[in-house]
Amino acid sequence: EDQVTQSPEALRLQEGESSSLNCSYTVSGLRGLFWYRQDPGKGPEFLFTLYSAGEEKEKERLKATLTKKESFLHITAPKPEDSATYLCAVQTSGGSYIPTFGRGTSLIVHP
Amino acid sequence: GAVVSQHPSWVICKSGTSVKIECRSLDFQATTMFWYRQFPKQSLMLMATSNEGSKATYEQGVEKDKFLINHASLTLSTLTVTSAHPEDSSFYICSAPSPRTSGLQTQYFGPGTRLLVL
Predict the structure, then answer these.
(1) How far is CA A25 from CA A66, A102, B116, in A?
(2) Which A positions 8-47 lie with beta carbon below 8 A of chain B?
(3) Could you report the per-residue pLDDT of A36-88, keeping only the tens digit for each?
(4) Which residues of B touch A1 (CB under 8 A)?
């Protein structure tokens, strides 16, 4: 069974304090890994898609990386507006294109 | 990116009534849409796959007679919660896969509908 585990469950940072969120996965065959940001009371907002190990993508203060077993979402010098829940999802090559989601990491950045 | 809308954004209803939630893809066509349910501090739980022109596919444990799904057109799917009860109170989110150009199809999510059943 495909599994996606995100850690930590919650993370509190001071503004400017860089850190990383982890998404580890166990799947039969990875077609792609997605990162989403979800603000309270809203639907997830797409951030990145990663396809293969070694790939990296950046957007403002966020950088996503991928290995064969996990993905990291690095947040450099975060600001309070980066506070949100970050969701990771994987799509496998097993036929279904429905992604499997992790439970998310709730990030709070204090000013 | 592609835009998906939902209506209403929140609804309060009495126990026993039915509630309809609409999901629209605004700038692209979607033959398939997905309906999720999310409890506080929990991840997205897929309820069903909505298919244009055919019956929806429900995930295990989801009552198809309680959660009626109709994919009326290539841009509209509706979820009707029939005879709602307080335990149906939740955050319902729909998504639609982006038009396939190359690579993977990204899921674009609606803003969600908060349902409170009294």
Answers:
(1) 11, 9, 34
(2) 31-32, 34, 36, 41-46
(3) 999 999 999 999 999 999 999 999 999 999 999 999 999 999 999 999 999 99
(4) none
